[in-house]
Amino acid sequence: MLSLNGLSACIGRQTVLEDVGFTLSNGQCLAVVGGSGAGKSTLLRLILGLRKPAVPVAGHLCFDGHDYALSKASSGKPMGIAYVPQSPAHGFDPLRRLRWQWQQLQRLLGKHAAGGEVLDALGLPVLAKAFPHEWSRGMQQRLLVAMALLEQPKMLILDEPTSALDPLIAAQVLTEVQRVAQECDIAVMMVTHDLALAAQFADQIAILHQGHMVQTGPAQQVLTAPSCDYAAELVAHRYWQQENPESLAAE
Ligand SMILES: Nc1ncnc2c1ncn2[C@@H]1O[C@H](COP(=O)(O)OP(=O)(O)OP(=O)(O)O)[C@@H](O)[C@H]1O
Q: Which strands sit side by side in the sheet containing 55-63, from one edge to the other?
């Protein structure tokens, strides 16, 4: 479904991505894991064809049988990708009620009554007359995921999809994403800081560090055979929340 090769990008004089590449098949999930400022959101934006603030200086993308030379703006944007941004506020019109926004999408897609089961599976209430600001950030994030799934895109890109969710709801959301992706053969790419979560839900993990993809491979392989010090450190600290109380008790 997607093959990316040799992507390098700059913001001003700063190189923010260097020679990044990976492949992703239909129905598979790739988790891009890395620290703050590693270039994860930039990578997603460039795949979507969003050329600001980072400008691609080299790279080639093949998506759904079409080729794109990423350094050339005239090469166009890939079609058929649904994107859930890191900040849910960027996904809604703040002045329109959520139910109206959901119904507009249903109309656009010609699916007038569809999507109820996805809302249920994501633990969302019936869409009443609320405006976006009347819902919590986690609820908004889940509604954006539901809207993206309703589209049944060829590929779904999720930027930190669980950042506003507690662990139980996060698992519920990713289980539903996994179910729909497998049923509809959707390729999923998600960005997360959480390697433990990535290991549970992704088939492939890519570790991004300071603009370099330092390791890519099947999730189990990355966990059991980290290829560099940074990957090893991430693997060692993936359960820090659970380990912390024990280490405190040991002191
Ligand atoms: N608008 C901007 N102007 C200048 N530099 C930027 C801008 N946006 C991002 N950068 C820089 O680009 C680099 C990559 O940023 P990016 O947001 O892609 O990282 P990230 O891995 O998604 O980080 P986080 O996990 O904190 O969201 C960082 O060094 C960041 O400072």
A: 14-24, 2-11, 55-63, 66-69
pLDDT digits (tens, 9 = 90+) for 106-146: 999 888 777 888 888 888 877 778 899 998 888 888 899 89
Strand partners, 22: 4
Tokens of 86: 């890191």
Ligand 1 probe mutation, 41, 45, 207, most atoms within 8 A of CB = 41
Give the distance (Å) from ligand 1 centre to CA of residue 183: 34
pLDDT tens per residue across span 50-66:
888 999 999 999 999 99
- Contact call for residues 134 and 165 (beta carbons, < 8 A): no
**167 touches ligand 1 (CB under 6 Å):** no
Q: Does 207 sit in the ligand 1 pocket, CB within 6 Å?
A: no
Q: What is the ipTM, given to two decimal places?
A: 0.95
Q: At 224, phi and psi to the nearest 5?
A: -95, -25
Beta carbon of 46 within 6 Å of any ligand 1 atom: no
Q: What is the pLDDT of residues 63-112, one digit of tens each?
A: 999 999 998 888 888 999 999 988 888 889 999 999 999 999 999 988 87
Is pLDDT of 247 > 60?
Answer: no
- Pocket test of ligand 1: the residue of 8, 40, 46, 86 to mutate, having most ligand atoms within 8 Å of its CB, is 40
Rounded to the nearest 5 percent, the helix, strand and coil shares of the chain are 40, 25, 35
Tokens of 110: 């010609």
